[in-house]
Design a protein that fits this description.
The chain is α/β, with parallel strands linked by helices. The chain contains 11 helices and 10 strands. Strand 4 and strand 5 form a beta hairpin. The chain is globular, with a radius of gyration of 20 Å. The relative contact order is 0.12. The structure holds S-adenosylmethionine.
Length: 279
């Protein structure tokens, strides 16, 4: 395996940050080397240096996409951390359902292989079952990620034994999935609310429309402070008045963006768009 040199590593760090916002730490040489060496073979470059030279030219979109794909962390699970979905069920959906005419719109902003987006959909379905007639409109979930391979898995909605068991109760598995040749396939009821689309969070959100809730969980941690601010401010602008944003357990808007009020609930902390915030 060709080791990445110090200089190549610096060039690669700059490339990755400008391509997708991910800031690599000082000590990720081994990780970068092992992931990039695989691509050197896949794209038939003589060595890592040749592939990095090509990347620097910024002309080969397919290569760029595969490199970003290889460097993202896609770790996810069903109902991750539980409390965001309990707050959705017990706090946000009951409030949004009141006097509602337009669909409730939710953005799952770094959806990985779909577990977060389908967990939102399952929660919506359970809310409707437990509170018949309360929610008179549809729930629409727009699920986005930068990774085409993750989006494909998410759209296919087929999960192997290992991934289906991570965070999903047997009861939910039986209710929302059916088994087909050692895979569990999400049923039409949970798929119908979710639309997957590729989106780099560093790019424009103009085509997404407005949302009532944004799940932006476990992705901001990879970005610089400036990019966290930029993303949170632009997300605030896509929220309807008093809309909600849910971040990962180790993420917070504090110090990056003043658009949100922190709301402490018995179930956990959530943030909502501050009244009168103009951006
Ligand atoms: C650790 S996963 C989090 C998945 C899910 N939100 C959760 O909490 O379980 C991070 C996801 O962010 C995506 N990602 C990384 N950089 C991105 C960017 N610039 N734009 C959009 N998605 C990005 C990755 O592809 C990956 O699927």
């Amino acid at each position: 395996m060709t080791q990445i040199s110090k200089q190549e590593y610096e060039i690669f760090r700059d490339f990755l940050e400008s391509a997708c916002g991910i800031v690599l730490g000082e000590n990720k040489h081994y990780l970068v080397t092992s992931r990039l060496n695989k691509l050197t073979h896949e794209f038939s470059y003589p060595d890592l240096g040749a592939m990095l030279t090509e990347l620097k030219k910024n002309k080969n979109n397919k290569l760029k996409q595969r490199v970003v794909d290889a460097m993202t962390t896609n770790e996810t699970m069903w109902f991750r951390d539980k409390y965001p979905f309990e707050m959705l069920q017990q706090i946000m959906l009951p409030e949004l359902a009141k006097n509602r005419i337009k669909p409730i719109r939710i953005w799952s902003a770094a959806c990985s292989s779909g577990q977060e987006s389908y967990s939102i959909s399952m929660t919506s379905s359970e809310f409707q079952m437990k509170n018949p007639g309360v929610l008179k409109t549809a729930v629409e979930i727009v699920a986005t990620d930068i990774s085409p391979s993750m989006l494909k898995m998410a759209k296919d909605a087929k999960y192997d034994k290992l991934s289906i068991n991570r965070g999903l109760t047997e009861e939910r598995r039986k209710r929302f999935f059916k088994e087909e040749e050692n895979q569990w396939v999400a049923n039409a009821d949970i798929c119908k609310r979710v639309r997957f689309t590729e989106l780099n969070l560093t790019g424009s959100y103009a085509l997404l429309g407005k949302f009532d809730i944004i799940f932006c969980r476990n992705v901001l941690i990879y970005f610089s402070s400036e990019l966290k601010t930029d993303i949170l401010v632009r997300m605030a602008k896509t929220l309807n008045p008093r809309g909600f944003i849910l971040l990962g357990g180790s993420e917070s808007p504090t110090g990056y963006c003043d658009a949100f009020d922190m709301v402490r609930t018995p179930l956990g902390v959530l943030y909502r768009l501050r009244e009168g915030w103009r951006g």
